[in-house]
Design a protein that fits this description.
- The complex is a heterotetramer, with 2 copies of chain A and 2 copies of chain B.
- Chain A is about 40% helix and about 30% strand.
- By secondary structure, chain A is of the alpha/beta class.
- In chain A, strands 1-2-3-4-5 form a 5-stranded mixed beta sheet.
- In chain A, helix 1 links the parallel strand 2 and strand 3.
- The radius of gyration of chain A is 12 Å and the shape is globular.
- Chain A starts with a strand and ends with a helix.
- In chain A, about 50% of the residues are buried.
- In chain B, about 30% of the residues lie in helices and about 25% in strands.
- The chains are: A alpha/beta, B alpha+beta.
- Chains B and C meet through strand 4 and strand 5 of B and strand 4 and strand 5 of C.
Chain lengths: ~110, ~140, ~140, ~110
């Protein structure tokens, strides 16, 4: 997995790519939570995710919950088929706000 | 009953990808379609994660994976030397109670057709069996 | 996968004969020969004895037996509401160490082709599966 | 199960018949051990046993061990096919002295 943050307007966009598993998810989790702790609305870009396991999903849920607590916008964007499959198994595809890409979210704000 | 593949790795997160590779190759070779292969990889990964996180709980020890190709099903056998676990100790959470964690058992049960703990030769550790039937042979647990 | 027979009795020694009768009838109906039927009766009896003696350990509770006839095997499912047991908690003794007791697990493993703990619907108690394959389909554990 | 004791010369012969299981074996066990505690060489007649489980076998092993401790003769006689099958599964068919019937044992003394 690689994880990086870009800024788009006032949004932090966390791009996770590759395999998100128990080994790599702590890094993605830290980045997501850091953006929210900084008070930024945050989008997580999952378009290049080839694999995500329950520990990766748990990191997204943590971000989702922290954002709600902080009253910050939080959404997933460009969810890959591999990631969407796992979100569906977790019945979370209807829980997370999901957008086609960063622009789609920004346009809707 | 042919054992197709064997793999032994230390019970550490950085070795999960080796386990996933073995599962992927074996499931493809068995003839499952892309979606099913992807799910099987996830299920075995989750079971091994649980061995690391809950079974060994930070201690060191091996995880041994065996793939057994049966005429009607593929079976993944996951052997550990952690403390013996009862099947009912697996606590799947209610999916409506949204919180981080508590998804692995749900994934495993949803994906696999049969989940059970087999006897170990020496009565130590655990031997988890995860089976997936060929399309059309499915018997849901 | 047809459930042929169900029986629920209190986990008490005086009800073991009812369990044996159900096993005997089901195994005969499945087509096993006399010797095999007799062994299956013994194995299921021993597993239920262990539920009474070690699972409930004197407490009250139900034992539910289900017989499932599969194309290649007959399966006996034994459900209890005792404390969750790990498969490795079954300690078969060395047969050379002659002493009273310690034979049940040995009988069960010798007689059955597959022994495992399945998940229970509500994550409480235990669900033991004992399978015997039809002659020629045998896969030894 | 029914259990009864007859005397043959100085031997106690404990006849067990029917189904020996967890419910009934305590009764057979008590009888066997009582004979041995009385100081009698003891034969257990299993010719009418239609079923025996591990608790029944355990009672026989207990008798066998108590007899050895007390230096008393102990043997099984007329072992039914059902009982022999279970003794074989337990690898005890070569451990217990087994005779065709009471007479065969008495003749061999
Ligand atoms: N191999 C195992 N050893 C011990 N306990 C386990 C094992 N697998 C699962 N469990 C139990 O089942 C619970 C649910 O597991 P899971 O659904 O994977 O979620 P999580 O691992 O996030 O808690 C765990 O918290 C643990 O208590
Ligand atoms: N259902 C069970 N629940 C808990 N422990 C069990 C169960 N079945 C077997 N065991 C364990 O395995 C051991 C061996 O069982 P067994 O071979 O039947 O001999 P015995 O019952 O005479 O001890 C038991 O003493 C017990 O510790």
């Amino acid at each position: 997995m690689t994880a990086e943050v870009k800024m788009e307007q006032d949004y932090a966009v966390v791009c996770l790519s590759g395999e998100i598993d128990l080994h790599s998810s702590p890094q993605g989790r830290k980045l997501i939570l850091a953006c929210l702790h900084d008070g930024r609305p945050t989008l997580v870009d999952l378009s290049a995710v080839s694999y995500i396991d329950s520990s990766g999903v748990a990191s997204l849920v943590e971000g989702f919950q922290l954002a709600r607590e902080r009253k910050l916008d939080f959404a997933l964007v460009g969810v890959s088929a591999a990631a969407l499959n796992v979100l569906k198994l977790a019945r979370l595809d209807k829980v997370f706000p999901i957008y086609a890409n960063v622009q789609a979210r920004l346009a809707a704000v | 009953m042919a054992v197709e593949q064997r793999l032994e790795v230390p019970a550490q997160p950085e070795h999960l990808h080796e386990i996933r590779e073995v599962v992927q190759r074996a499931a493809e070779a068995y003839g499952f379609d892309k979606d099913c292969v992807r799910d099987l990889v996830l299920a075995v990964n989750e079971a091994c994660m649980n061995v690391i996180q809950h079974g060994y709980a930070g201690r060191n020890g091996p995880i041994r994976l065996e793939v057994v190709s049966q005429p009607d099903a593929i079976e993944f056998r996951i052997r550990d030397e952690a403390a013996p676990v009862a099947m009912s100790a697996w606590k799947a959470r209610d999916l409506n109670d949204i919180r981080p964690g508590g998804l692995g058992v749900h994934f495993i049960r949803e994906i696999m057709d049969e989940v059970c703990y087999l006897p170990t030769p020496d009565n130590t550790g655990n031997l988890l069996s995860l089976k997936k039937y060929q399309i059309g042979q499915g018997m849901d647990v």
